[in-house]
Amino acid sequence: MTKLRWGMIGGGEGSQIGPAHRLGALADGLFEFSAAALDHRPDVGRSYAKTLGVSENRAYGDWNEMLTSEAKRDDRIDLVTVATPNSTHFEITKAFLEAGFNVLCEKPMTMTVEEGEEIVKIANKVGKLCTVNYCYSAYPMVRQARAMVQNGELGKIRLIVTNFSHGHHGDADDADNPRVRWRYDPKMAGVSGQFADCGIHALHMASFIGNDEVEVVSADFASTIQGRELEDDAMVNFRMSSGIVGRLWTSSVAIGRQHGFDIQVFGEKGGLKWISEQPNQLLYSKIGNRTEIIEKGENNLHDDASRLSRVAIAHPEGFPLAVANIYVDIAATINGDVRANLPTAADGLRSMAAVYAATQSARKTGKWVDARPPMFR
Ligand SMILES: NC(=O)c1ccc[n+]([C@@H]2O[C@H](COP(=O)([O-])OP(=O)(O)OC[C@H]3O[C@@H](n4cnc5c(N)ncnc54)[C@H](O)[C@@H]3O)[C@@H](O)[C@H]2O)c1
User: Fold this and answer.
1) Residue nearest to atom 30 of ligand 1 (CA)
2) Which residue from 62, 90, 263, 346 could staple onto 115, CB 3.0 to 4.6 Å apart?
């Protein structure tokens, strides 16, 4: 099969998410790294792209140059990944979709609900793929959890409890570090800090495994370090359209917690627990029985978990391979084999609507607020 041509914007040397995309996109030989505008400093970006094997004439200084040039090529890229800071996602994603490119955008997809709605409309109009990197949903054991819920193995789901809480911004003496400070500054980060950064992964996961949509939220936001305008800790209660009760805690000041992402799903016939720091295992408690450990790679997994288990049972698979699973599904979709489990622009929009709803709720001491995007009400 011919490799698809892949381009990347952002994710330059030293960035947090750049390496995971490169490992993920290139892991299965489905894509070749054809074009890039990797850094906000044009020369640095060009030079780093060349060291990664991108040819000189496709190692661009900025994304506008990349768009103009790629749009004219017969061998234009088949997919662009947008891995720049949040405030640039909307304009880059919009411009590439309108020019007819498939896009994988980092989360959050946009900074406002209106922008999110615009992206959904444009993606529908141009008929191109627009997906958002909710990569945790591509771990095999998360796919197993979703399939078990869909298959009725837990019965009706009553309750989902999820946390995405770490302690990496918990040092008050480091709060002025520019790499930390912008996250709590509304001019740079928008209306929400920690909830928009990490909480939306947990909320997406609740929808993904619970196979349901968030309808209303009630939030309590706190800024625990002096000088921070936006929240570094949030507790968000939510209700889903089928009546599932949701509880979500997200924090960046929970010192001692490292990645700190976990989810528990409680149904009338049993419960599941998945922890991102032990991603190869899913804990399953059937009512009246002991807790079992379901392992990635074992026999009799649901198909979607089985096909995404890469190496032999008990050999760890990690974050880059979860990102690789997103790229596997993107390649399948571009090649005409639509994968239902890929996150969509609508998911990106729902996240942003939930962020705005939670922000409003927190300002009104936890009043319940409609979290559905206006276009889906
Ligand atoms: N899906 C996930 O699990 C996950 C994890 C981490 C980060 N992210 C998201 O990825 C995005 C990037 O986060 P990060 O932590 O890697 O940031 P970072 O600050 O570590 O890196 C950002 C990179 O983008 C480059 N850049 C900035 N503006 C640019 C522009 N206009 N054109 C080209 N390049 C530009 C910078 O030079 C840098 O290389 C954010 O939106 C973040 O929310 C997602």
Assistant:
1) 40
2) 90
Domain ranges (residues) in the chain: 4-135, 137-315+345-363
Atom 40 of ligand 1, residue of closest alpha carbon: 85
67 lines ligand 1 (CB under 6 A): no
Q: Is the peptide bond before 279 cis (omega within 30 degrees of 0)?
A: no
- Looking at ligand 1, which residue's alpha carbon is closest to its atom 6? 17
Q: Whose CA is nearest to atom 32 of ligand 1?
A: 40
In this predicted model, what pLDDT tens digit does every residue of 313-345 receive, in sequence order? 999 989 999 999 999 999 999 999 887 799 999
> Taking the mean position of all CA atoms in its chain, how far away is CA 175?
25
Is residue 88 within 6 Å of ligand 1 at its C-beta? yes
Give pLDDT tens digits for 155-209: 999 999 999 999 999 999 999 998 899 999 999 899 999 999 999 999 999 999 9
User: Strand 130-132 to strand 102-105: parallel, antiparallel, or no bridges (unpaired)?
Assistant: parallel
Tell which atom from ligand 1 comes closest to the C-alpha of 63.
Answer: 32
CATH 3.40.50.720 for the 4-135 domain, yes or no = yes
pLDDT at 338: 80
Q: How far apart are CA 256 and CA 252, in angstroms?
A: 11
This prediction has a pTM of 0.97
3.90.25.10, 3.30.360.10, 3.60.15.10, 3.40.1120.10: CATH of 137-315+345-363: 3.30.360.10
